[in-house]
Request: fold
Amino acid sequence: MQRNALARLSDVAQSTLPFLARVAHAATRARDELRLRLLGDDFEERVRSLQRRYTTLGGDPFGFDPETARQAAMVVAVFHRLYFRTEVFGIEHVPPGRALLIANHSGQIPIDAAIIGSAMFYDARPPRVTRAMVEKWTATLPFVSAFFSRVGQVVGLQENAVRLLEMGELVLAFPEGMRAISKPFANRYQLEPFGHGFMRLALRTQTPIVPVAVIGAEEQYLSFGNIEWAAKALGLPSFPVVPQLLLPGGAMPLPTKYRLHFGEPMRFYGDPDDDESVIGDKVWLVQQTINDLLRRGLRERRGVFL
Reply:
């Protein structure tokens, strides 16, 4: 009787083990397919090409760490390719060497900057590291500031930007500043007045400007205004009213479909110390170009989530 039970167990094991092996094989194949969809088949080569660049430069003076950036790129890929399903147009317009990416800004947290950076890593050939100019107050955040430095973000001071451009880097700036992230949902895709600093920087360093329109970010959080007294009391640049944050899981942005439109490079010449009116005319041209890209992109899209 004991031998019969053992025989039955042996039969069950012989029939079960192949099934478990097939399940394990299917799980491995699904994992590999997901990794390929997220990262592409050339992910490691893209990482190595950037590592070689910064080795040749002798490192980065602002603390950029390729390995930290590699890990961050793997996480952001989930949002770039799965969650927001980003479509990228005109990325071939970004010239080699130093350049300024100038984009509209929104979203309460810098997801738009992360998606632009992800596009420049995954979709550009060759891959580029995007050095975003972040607000000065972020330097007061102990852990965030260190992480930002390691993934290539730099406090938005003119001297920092000049040094990056002299290194041949790709610098991202949002000239609307904090006004953009505190505007209400009703004003989405209506550009706030651009600051002039990026234009003086472009003139001083003779750097081409690539206009970028970001569509999708201005609908990921439904903001109904800004409580200035609360922002001042908490020492924050803004305190947007976002009711969805009160809902379970509301801290996650809505899964809007991102679309990035890169325009053709714009080159400007003149004195970087010109009067505000002269600089302002050049800034208006860039702002109008981004506005045109936004209007065209909004007309062409099928919907906020499609």
Notes: The CA atoms of residues 231 and 239 lie 5 Å apart. The chain has a mean pLDDT of 88. The first strand starts at residue 87 and ends at 89. The radius of gyration is 24 Å.
